[in-house]
Design a protein that fits this description.
- There is one protein chain.
- Strand 2 and strand 3 form a beta hairpin.
- It contains ten helices and seven strands.
- By secondary structure, the chain is an alpha/beta fold.
- The radius of gyration is 18 Å and the shape is globular.
- Helix 5 runs parallel beside helix 8.
- Helix content is 47%, strand content 11%.
- The N and C termini lie close together (9 Å).
């Protein structure tokens, strides 16, 4: 299916595609009206049903997607964006027991199986799935952020991590898994990560928490979506 034949799209993702940014003035997260999905929808005049939710993981999205399909979801394509929350940890538990073993919210093999299942469900309904990989994060900023969360002791978390950069590498593992899945099962990939890694200071496009894109980052993400729309046409 060429992109110029796509008349409507649905999105399942987390806070990244929900357009959530951290407002340093108010000290809280808020949705951005000019987020990447809205910018894309306006530019191409294509209706986009955004089912993204703050904190969502692939298994939670699978449940939501299955319900929508059972209710007769009618779209030409679905963009699936996950991994950011899946690869994360319960930092309070890590802080409480830095010598113990800890699993991410969605272990990698479970994440892969869930993403592949969502793609398969969509294809069986004649809906074209798209994957996107993840923008890079700033491990130092995120470590500082989680160190100030209630119940979290940064020194104990670092004892478990070994290196702060482990946070970046963990997220990269999930992003690379998405790349491999897209290739192995033939799902088109929106390569977001490469666009940000081209920047000498990609951190300039991240919020203070080191993981959410700021308004500039959302604008760049919208540009990436637009470039792929032209490519797939």
């Amino acid at each position: 299916m060429a992109f110029n034949k796509i008349k409507n799209i649905a999105v399942w993702g987390d806070s990244l595609l929900k357009g959530i940014v951290y407002d340093e003035t108010d000290g809280k997260y808020r949705p951005l009206k000019k987020c990447s999905v809205n910018l894309f929808s306006k530019l191409f005049s294509i209706p986009v049903k955004n089912n993204s939710r703050f904190g969502c993981t692939a298994p939670k999205a699978l449940e939501s997607l299955q319900r929508s399909l059972e209710q007769g979801l009618e779209v030409d394509a679905v963009l699936l964006e996950f991994g950011g929350n899946d690869c994360d940890y319960n930092w309070v538990e890590v802080s409480q027991a830095p010598e113990a073993e800890h699993s991410p919210h969605t272990p990698l093999q479970d994440f892969i199986a869930t993403m592949e299942k969502m793609a398969d469900l969509l294809q069986k309904k004649g809906i074209r799935p798209f994957f996107m990989n993840l923008p890079p994060i700033d491990a130092q900023r995120y470590f500082t952020w989680i160190s100030h969360l209630p119940g979290v002791d940064g020194e104990r978390v670092l004892r478990w991590l070994g290196q702060k950069d482990m946070i970046y590498r963990q997220q990269e593992r999930y992003s690379r898994a998405i790349d491999r899945m897209a290739y192995s099962i033939g799902v088109p990939l929106i390569d977001v990560r490469d666009r940000f890694l081209r920047e000498h200071h990609y951190q300039d496009y991240l919020c203070i928490d080191g993981i959410h894109l700021n308004e500039r980052g959302q604008a760049v993400l919208g540009e990436v979506f637009s470039s792929y729309a032209v490519q797939f046409s």
